[in-house]
Amino acid sequence: MRASNKRCKTVCETSRLVRQAGWWRPTGSALLSTGPARAMVLLAHASSGSPSPLGSPKRLHQIIEDIRKQPQAGGEGVQLILQARKDEVQYGKGYWLTTLLATEGRAWPLEPLLTFGAYSVIAAAALTSQPEWLRTNTPVISALQTAVNTIGVALFFLQGFKTNASYDRWYEGRKLWGVIATGLWVTASMIAGGSVKSPARAREILVWNLLLAITLKNALRGEEAVPEADSFGLSESDRAVLMSTPVLQRPLLCTSRINRALTSAFQASEHHNPSDIVRMRIQVEKMTEALPAMNRVQNTPTPFAYTVHLRSFIVLWLAAMPVIYSASLGWGAVPVSLAIAYAILGIEAISLEIEAPFGKDFNDLPLDDLVQGMCINALLVAGPAIDWDAPPEP
């Protein structure tokens, strides 16, 4: 009876904290798991006789809240589209109006566009003031239009190829983050299942996995601060080592600490099955392999020669536009030329923005939201099996 009362108390306390924290509220990117699923994970821990979360549910709640309070920047476009998919009443089916009337997140190549606009006005003013010249040179203008049409097809094809290559890097970046999420969640689920006997060792493994995701995001963005390190309760020595390590090398530090903790758990027989340690180490290897791949995505732009050649012909092609249209449209050549210029210069601006997808731009990947979702889900799965109030493993 006493054990039954204790399990009932555990279920009630955990359920209250889940409701109070509002952890099942969907985020804009929908990267977190559904609320009922997350609540059931905690309730299953409470009612199954696995390590009780009553030792530190409030501490776990505080850690999750500290993670959720971290500011988010970048990837607003992804979040907006995902939100529009869910709410067709507000955004309309297919979210046409949301995207068609959007101003934020749209490509605005202002500098080249304004320069071309000034050139178009000057060219239209000069040509419309010389109607006799336009009449006598009609064959030349017609020949120029044929050349412009031919080059235009090739330019749009090459620009489309460049944009597709940039999107491939954007999507590959998202797949690589999926590797990190998989490794983190597999490790968390194994800790929750009792694969590691020592709660202190389990805490060490989980914390360094969480820090791997966080420091990797920071390394890709060049961010120094790691406020989550205080929330996780790192020892002073571990925190000093982490903060003294260069930003780009911190993810490797985390993987080495995870491997060291797994080795210690194996040598001390702090496991129920040796294969569990092997499985967690395999996940670490996969996450380690993703680190240089992300660096490759981040630091491999479109080849310089390709960009120079493409832009040179874009400029020549656009320069001919006001000359061609002034003969038939007069001053109307200015808005027509600007519309055409915006089409191709906008595609160029989009390709530049998405070829480095780990930043804080509107159309980048929502890394802040993605990493927060990974960490919160891992804590909800494995956190109840860990005593967060105990001192960290030395």
Rg calc: 28 Å
In total, the number of strands is: 0
Return the structural class. mainly alpha
The DSSP helix count reads 17
Instruction: Write down the secondary-structure element order.
Output: HHHHHHHHHHHHHHHHH
Beta content comes to under 5%
**Which ranges are low-confidence, i.e. pLDDT below 50, for 5 or more consecutive residues?**
17-55
Helix share bin: over 70%
Euclidean distance between termini CA atoms = 38 Å
Q: Note the main sheet.
A: none
Q: What form results from the Cα inertia axes?
A: elongated
Q: Would you tell me the overall average pLDDT?
A: 79
Note the main attributes of this structure.
394 residues, elongated, mainly alpha
Descriptive account of the structure:
Residues 17-55 have low confidence and may be disordered. The protein has helices spanning 2-21, 35-48, 57-68, 76-86, 88-91, 96-100, 110-128, 131-136, 138-192, 199-221, 228-231, 236-244, 250-267, 274-298, 304-329, 333-354, 367-382. The protein is elongated and about 95 Å long. The two termini are 38 Å apart. The protein is an all-alpha fold.
